[in-house]
Structure prediction request, 226 residues.
Amino acid sequence: DTGVSQNPRHKITKRGQNVTFRCDPISEHNRLYWYRQTLGQGPEFLTYFQNEAQLEKSRLLSDRFSAERPKGSFSTLEIQRTEQGDSAMYLCASSPSQGAPSYNEQFFGPGTRLTVL
Amino acid sequence: QKEVEQNSGPLSVPEGAIASLNCTYSDRGSQSFFWYRQYSGKSPELIMFIYSNGDKEDGRFTAQLNKASQYVSLLIRDSQPSDSATYLCAVNADDKIIFGKGTRLHILP
Prediction:
């Protein structure tokens, strides 16, 4: 399977704990995006990377959130001191580089569902 | 604030009929427009994209774009029960995509 993969698929944690999610994009894609989706809403943009550079962060991304893509391949999203309001589906998507036929398209992974108790 | 607006539904359509889903967007500079299908508990799946004014057809799906009216639509012909899902309209904003809240579509057998 050469699609976007995310791990874990589900995470249940207690309030105040730290959690880390991983995303492996499609191998030839140099752009990687993180979104958060809650029930009844569309995906909300959190941040994105072009290769290893983090180019934009949403105002939704508080200081408790940090994302990395150290070698321009996989990415991690860490949430520190989780709160119940962090419960959501965290989606990762990737896109190919400029000039590729599907440059503007984003391909989503299966998501990580976070439940904060 | 760049926005994408959709009627949340649910939109109920008899099997075999045409389902019509609509979306408006606020940023006149947007160049790329997408329709994603999302089944409950699953991630969004790209089903159509359109860049130019007019219609684009792919199988039972037709996307329509009117940049002057800032309006995008998706028509699904010969609706099937498997088309029951939430349909997300999305618009590019610089290097990222802004999603609407989605329209829930229910195909009645």
